[in-house]
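Lecture 7, part B: from sequences to assemblies.

Below are the input chains for today's worked example.
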Amino acid sequence: MTPIHANPDHLQAFAAALFTQAGLPAHDAAFCAECLVTTNLWGIDSHGVLRLPLYVRRVRSGAVNPRPNIRQAAGGRALQVLDGDHGMGFVVGRAAMARAIELAGQFGVAAVGVVRSNHFGAAALYARMAAAQERIGIVMSNVIPNMVAPGGARPVAGNNPIAIAVPTFGEFPFVLDISLSNVAGGKLLLASQKGEKIPLDWATDRQGRPTDDPDEGFKGFLLPVGGHKGLGLSYVVDILSGVITGGVFQQQIKSMYKQPDEPSLTGHFMIVLDPLALMSRDELAERMQQFVAAIHSSPMWDEKMEMLLPGELEHRRAQERRVTGIPLPASLVQDLRALADELDVNPITNLQ
Amino acid sequence: MTPIHANPDHLQAFAAALFTQAGLPAHDAAFCAECLVTTNLWGIDSHGVLRLPLYVRRVRSGAVNPRPNIRQAAGGRALQVLDGDHGMGFVVGRAAMARAIELAGQFGVAAVGVVRSNHFGAAALYARMAAAQERIGIVMSNVIPNMVAPGGARPVAGNNPIAIAVPTFGEFPFVLDISLSNVAGGKLLLASQKGEKIPLDWATDRQGRPTDDPDEGFKGFLLPVGGHKGLGLSYVVDILSGVITGGVFQQQIKSMYKQPDEPSLTGHFMIVLDPLALMSRDELAERMQQFVAAIHSSPMWDEKMEMLLPGELEHRRAQERRVTGIPLPASLVQDLRALADELDVNPITNLQ
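Predicted structure of the full complex, as structure tokens:
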């Protein structure tokens, strides 16, 4: 198979068919497919359809519950915890954000924790839901520890993602989506392929010692962004997502890569603020536009670079990829075709 | 004058006398003095009595209102904004955190923004108030832009502080208090004194170009921690503290160093969560102790280092300094004595 540029709509229909065949209700299958393809449109291919085979495998093995009974597990008023019942992270995450948005409308601010969920893809997916409702969304999730503290020999915290979205009342929302390691594992692989050394603050070997060898680093652990700063924030994400929710934290979390056939027990935590409880829509829009304009108009010394708002690059890529299609490497096309055969879904002859 | 080790109680009484003489009500003067000396006890001398002369000057010049009428300016239910009426940041910050703690008790989570405040010292002061009430406190504040984006020629964001405190039900709370630059200006001065070069991700010259010269860097701007990660978080702090509150943001904020005789118009934003709305005190205590123990017991490859919880170093230093006293450099003692003379406060003969 050769690499192709897939039509986003066709790719989404294909992914939805796979999820449906795996056992998800049609509307949840469509939503999960939309999440993956949307993430590809933003250019975040690591969190897009690349993971489709793994998600489908996890549903088929029973690790992920295709028809979860998502229900309130604790709390009340503006602070609640939902039990995800081992559902798809996308479906559980959507339910939690919907609840948080609803409660923020009622109370001005709301926080919803989640227990017994699974990998929910890009955290920005949920933060953006809040921004689409003219609210501010803060979304985080815990992952199994993969970062060591300076001097430490074992991982103590995950490179937990945090996403924050704010409505700008412009062409696209402000969307920050970061993980708390200095870099992701993909950068180590890339350095290895290029035969380059890596900076000493990227990764460690299996003993926790900083290394400039990308292969050692890939076998070892990541280092937190900003040393104790990223490490401390990562602890906070784990405390909010796993400790106070009654969920699991630290080594109790499972990895969907290393334990693909077990529920991951992932925790999430979402905070939503309703800025329209503080001022009129017109005033907020004017102030946000002023904030954005100040960034956009700030001069550069490096004329090859550009002052972009968080989320702006994703907005541009999505515009491009809606026209050019989503690039899929040959190996992925092959995997998807094999999966389609296995699940008796129409083969992907018509992705382009 | 020679350097001394000041008795914390005496130093606090002295600072309170200065604030009272400058016009603060006695209980507010005592609180501001306690904030500064407590911060010195943690070892954060940059935010301790070193700044006492400047704070006093600002009250005397009228930049800071010694008797503010702090009142609700916007919002309701669990999301409110307070108008700090140009009061001392400590006094305004305490009022905002008290309100947020109260509202979190009522709603489970609460957020309180603040407009027209001033420099409030260490953000941890307020986050710790929440932890002392067995709640989780998240505190941030905007400062005038002093960081450039990669490739940018002008500062677009402040190295805004974020502090997060969580009760551990142990000897000391979990307290993370970070700024969003890679390093603070003090590290540049230190490198300059030692004649050392600085890493290229610490600071830039006046044109925004990364520099390894600490003197150029000190005259120039800071770089955000983790590049776009710290920059994006800094934008978020400014949006929450200054944009949605109806306060000021970006270049509208004043610097208390560069404009010492003007109100700074600083904004704060505080979020408080009540974890006891989600589980019993016993269960939360057990889970937090488990979280802390896992960190403390994690092995080190570097035996000279130790696995510390955020806030643990400050706890140890405070224990030490309660015994040994707070080290004050000779120049500071001289400044404080001059200020005492000027304000007709008993001279600091008895600080030790």
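Note for the exam: Chain A has a mean pLDDT of 96. Keep this in mind when comparing with the next example.
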